[in-house]
Specification:
Elements lengths: L4 H19 L26 H10 L21 H13 L10 H7 L10 E3 L3 E3 L29 E6 L11 H13 L5 E4 L8 E6 L17 E3 L6 E5 L4 E2 L7 E2 H13 L26 H11 L3
Parallel strand pairs: 3-4, 3-5, 5-7, 8-9
Antiparallel strand pairs: 1-2, 6-7
Length: 310
């Protein structure tokens, strides 16, 4: 005899109650979504969520309370002088009106998915440096930037090997080898570098992988729609994709283009920092459903200037 209808109904009800908790593997909330609720904030206010904004600005290089009296509001929701200065620097970097107020334009920019590499380096908590940007000539306007100290690969290291090592399996990434090969080729065409994929257990200068949340490098990912990927300056050779993103080689509206992000992160691997030109591949933020795979003139000028190429 089969189960009684009442018992079957109870079993189904219990299963439905349990399944949402067991199936859910990550939060669906936008990691940067909290910033929307802070729109309009300004110095002198105390609003819940400002502590999270401080962490955001600290992560991306705009805020460092340091030691001493400057850190009195580091872990609270007070809108103090240092937070206002950090917002002004952020606004200036993205060509927004630098009011120090969290206006609509600033909030919209902050909420965009982006590279995990900080935009600027803070010094002693107050002074912000511009990564020693080089000018092509006194009349040229360039937007590219280099890392502090201008690290680069040694002159004798022009053939760079890369391998894939991931800690998680990610849908939509089965062609990552050919995708990254195309991305490396974009940089090979404008530099003196050549690139070669090698086996995962072979010696390599660059390691590429997909990882989720905390993954051992001290820079945990934050889930979908926050930090997309990050990489190190020369000669670190580390390049990680956030495994929680919806990756694709032909992105739809809610997906991220693998090749576009790969081209950007390879620029970091070679020594370019973020450009403040929205048309450049090395611009910090990105959008779902688009492709941005071709180097802009600013990207080309930057990498050639760094390595002294004509």
């Amino acid at each position: 005899m089969g189960p009684k209808p009442f018992h079957l109904l109870v079993a189904i009800s219990l299963l439905c109650a349990i399944l949402p908790q067991t199936i859910e593997s990550k939060p669906s909330e936008d990691p940067f979504g909290f910033i929307k609720h802070l729109e309009g904030c300004h110095k002198g206010q105390s609003i819940k969520g400002l502590k999270g904004l401080k962490r955001y600005l600290e992560k991306f290089g705009y805020l460092n309370y340091g030691s001493g009296n400057n850190n009195s509001h580091e872990n609270d929701d007070e809108f103090d002088d240092l937070l206002e200065m950090a917002i002004r620097n952020y606004q200036h970097n993205y060509h927004l009106k630098d009011t120090g107020i969290l206006d609509n334009y600033t909030v919209s920019q902050m909420m965009k998915p982006r590279c995990g590499m900080p935009d600027v380096v803070t010094n002693n908590g107050t002074k912000h440096q511009s990564h020693n940007r080089k000018l092509m000539s006194i009349h040229s306007l360039v937007h590219y930037k280099f890392f502090h100290g201008e690290p680069r690969w040694p002159a004798e290291r022009t053939h760079l090997r890369y391998r894939f090592r991931s800690s998680t399996q990610v849908p939509g990434t089965q062609n990552i080898g050919s995708i990254c090969a195309r991305a490396f080729q974009k940089w090979a065409e404008v530099t003196h570098f050549t690139f070669e994929e090698v086996a995962s257990n072979a010696q390599a200068e660059i390691e590429i992988g997909f990882h989720r949340r905390s993954h051992g490098d001290g820079h945990p990912f934050d889930g979908r729609s926050g930090t997309l990927a990050h990489a190190t300056a020369p000669t670190g050779g580390m390049f990680h994709f956030d495994g929680d993103e919806n990756w694709s080689e032909n992105p739809e509206a809610n997906e991220v283009d693998l090749e576009s992000v790969a081209v950007h992160e390879i620029g970091h691997l070679l020594g370019l920092h973020h450009s403040d030109d929205p048309n450049a591949v090395m611009y910090a933020t990105f959008r779902y459903g688009i492709t941005k795979r071709d180097l802009d003139s600013d990207d080309v000028q930057g990498i050639r200037a760094l390595y002294g190429l004509q």
